[in-house]
Every structure is written in structure tokens, then in C-alpha cells.
Amino acid sequence: MKDSPEKITDLVRSLNLVPYLRQHPEATVMEIARDLNLSPQHVMDALNRLHVSGVGKGPGEMIDLVADWRRVTLIDDQGLDKPLRLTPTEANALLLTLETLETIPGLVDQDAVTSAAAKIRAAVKAPGVTDTIADTDPGPATVISQALADERQLELDYYSTSSNSTRTRQVSPEKLFHRDGYTYLNAWEDGEQKSFRLDRVRRASLLDEPSAAKGSRFDAEDPFGFTDKQVAELLIAPDATWLIDYWDIELGERSRTPDDGGWWTATMPFGSPEWLVRFALSQADRVKVVSPQDVAEEIARRADSARKRYDQPDSIE
Prior knowledge:
Mean pLDDT: 77
Number of strands: 11
Strand order of the largest sheet: 6-5-4-3-7
Domain WYL: 143-204
Distance between the termini: 68 Å
Structural class: alpha+beta
Helix content: 25-40%
InterPro entries: CBASS_pafABC_assoc_protein, PafC-like, PafC_HTH, WCX_dom, WYL_dom
Domain PafC HTH: 10-122
Pfam family, one: HTH_PafC
Domain WCX: 232-305
Low-confidence stretches: 126-136
Radius of gyration: 30 Å
Order of helices and strands: HHHEEHHHHEEEEEEEEHEH
């Protein structure tokens, strides 16, 4: 079970008491509480925890102190003579993450992100971090964020897995959303609502044309509109049921016919026939498409064509 944020905060606060006590010998509990903006009882609880803390349980392996309400005396600080702090590498990595979140409106509390980033910049005194951002060549996320704010159209160079190609698209952005660890842009293209994964956007340019987004209702439970898409009927090999962990596949019943090897019936929504063909060919030994019939025939045609090319002997000159 993971520790709660409150427990982690209490741990950090307790450990930071040690360097304070080293710098303020013989401080009273009331003085510590006043200086650190804590309640006296909270200070005593933290001191009691520290008294049984260390790298081990033997002599010389634990923090040693004497504490009562009148005086706190630190005997052995176990080397914790400085407050806990981020290393420059840790601080810059965290700052980079926060700056990325600043470019994605709607995902998180922007005020909290901006405030945290400003505090880290001030703490590490690292203006060079912000200087590395090229204002003349902003990343796609920054451009997309600007387009949403200004309600303008975008030109994207976007890699599509369905066609295995990158092409230029002109879209009207509507909103950003997060799903399964990825950030997507919900936008309109040629009158159709589509989703674009941000890590597949190779380039983004802001256009002068106003956005033509239609402001349709967004369903967070079904952001890709799978309920409105076509559904394919599949057969899944008995040793390939793990595919359901990676694709939106719903298993049906397992065949009881001895001759077919016990394949599973299944269904899967899909956006375009071309994508389904490519998916089936890439999983040829694991997946068979039963319907739509025209897609199944196209898969068979391409597979047969590939086999013929493979079987054809190379010409010898």
C-alpha cells in the first residue's frame, strides 16, 4: 500500500527538524513550534518519531535526542545536518514536467502548477532552464494551447498509425483530454470530430482562420466515440487472449469444436476499414476477422499477395 501524501509530508517535516535542532541547540518546543509554524503537539509527535528513527537499530545507527516541553537537546543527528532538498537534476526534471503541464490547459490546476514552477525556479536559482525554451520555435503543445485560447485553426503534421504515414492536416481544435497515460487533442477536420494524440504531432502551426469547432458534447467515458463506430467480429487464438489488455476487445465464447483449436469469438470497435486490415495483418497468427465481410476479403487478398511475393524466387542474372 502506498503512503499517503500526508504521511510523506510528516516524514519530510520530521527529518527537517534535525538540521533545525543542530542550528538551534537547547530550543524549547514552543520556540520550535513558533519558528516552523507548527503546533507544539505536532512538534512533540515528530520528535518522538525521530527518537526511534535511523538506518538500523544498533548503537550509533539511530538519531539520539532528549526532548521535553522545556528543552530539546540533539545528541546524534546521523549526518542529517542540512534540510532535505532536490538535487539540481531532480529540480530541473520536475521543472520540465511542470512547464509541460503549463502548456496543457484543462488537465490540472494551472494556478497550482504555475506557483509550484515559480517556487522551484526561485529555489534552485536556475534561469537557464527557462532560457532553453526557444520562443521562436515553440513546441506543438504550446502552439495547440495558443490555438485553443485564441479559438483559431491549426495546421498539423500528424503521424497516423492507421495509414502508417505522416500528412498535413488542418483542424479546428476543441479541447484537450487525457486518457490511458496519453494526452489527446479533440478537434474537427472536414466536418468530422477526431482525436489526435499529442506525441504523434510532428509540427503544429497557428493559422489565421477562426476555429470552426462545433462545441459538441464530450463524453469522458467514451472520448473516442467508440459507441458510434463500426464493430468487427473476430476470432482470437487461445494463446492470444492477452490482446484484450492492449486493445478494446471484448471476448465472447470459446469454440468447443475439436477441429478449430478452441479459438475465442470476440468483438472490437474500429474507426476505418484500412486500420482494421492493418491490425489483422499485424496479428495474422492470432486474429481472424469474420466481419465485415469486405474487410475479411481484403485481408485475405493482401495476405495472399504477400505470400506470392515471398514464394517467388529472386531472379538470377
